[in-house]
């Protein structure tokens, strides 16, 4: 009896993994999204009959140019792929600049238990030692592993398997730019996937779908002596929400607080987050916290995506904090 190989939709969107430079030593001045998925496959290590790949180019962009409309288009294509009974998993190639935002959007909207794995590269395909081919091979290996099912959207970079909930780009140029060891849910080495937890933790069902509209939400960053002008300008533009990326515990300077409260009075939802990178934003004293929401341990970028979806879905104001609470990590290290 012939064993059926997993059938994996391999969807490409461009990025550095498909980038080219004029010189193999040039790791910075390359042009992203120059190669199609067929060219990427030709450069990938052999997988020894691990899966049947169904390749498709669905975009060709530098991910710094990704937009909410791009998220929706990608999400709808991925959802269609996982809804296909002949497809067992999806691997999505993506630029690294906004990979974490797309992964989180997909986590919040895709309705499937099938593996969905994103990957990319920190070096262009033209580099003397590109990281893209190995990352892509590792991503396919993870997607083909039955134990990847039910773990939500995953990111595979530099042999680490990272959950969309925690993944973050933490270095500008290093091939080890994504995640910390403590954040990894697994790894790929010796030609095999290794999982930290053999049985995946229960992941809440996504509260939204790829059809959910995305409301206009922006991020305002706090710093010593920061101006309040961006807040007033964004409110005048008609944003539905603002994420305050404050210092420390999402701290709001006195001069800023009055303008953020004025934004709330104008109908704008404001979420306190932190630019610190680690740790949770906790509730402050009631007089200081109101009328703002707090992000828990979601970073400003992920807080924005969640708020865009919640407001786009028409969620009542009383339900908004509940979304952040429900998606907070069960245990946050002090």
UniProtKB/TrEMBL annotation:
Q: Which GO terms describe its biological process?
A: asparagine metabolic process
The UniProt keywords, alphabetically, are: Hydrolase
Q: Which residues form the Asparaginase/glutaminase C-terminal domain?
A: 217-324
Which CDD domains is this protein grouped with?
L-asparaginase_II
InterPro entries documented for this protein: AsnASE_II, Asp/glu_Ase-like_sf, Asparaginase/glutaminase-like, Asparaginase/glutaminase_AS1, Asparaginase/glutaminase_AS2, Asparaginase_C, L-asparaginase_C, L-asparaginase_N
Domain (L-asparaginase N-terminal): residue spans on this chain: 7-194
One Pfam family assigned to this protein is Asparaginase_C
What is the protein name given in its UniProt record? L-asparaginase
- Active-site residues are 16 (o-isoaspartyl threonine intermediate), 16, 96
Keyword Metal-binding listed? The answer is no
Residues binding substrate, per UniProt: 63, 96-97
Q: What GO molecular function annotations does the UniProt record carry, in alphabetical order?
A: asparaginase activity
UniProt EC number:
3.5.1.1
The family note in this entry says: Belongs to the asparaginase 1 family.
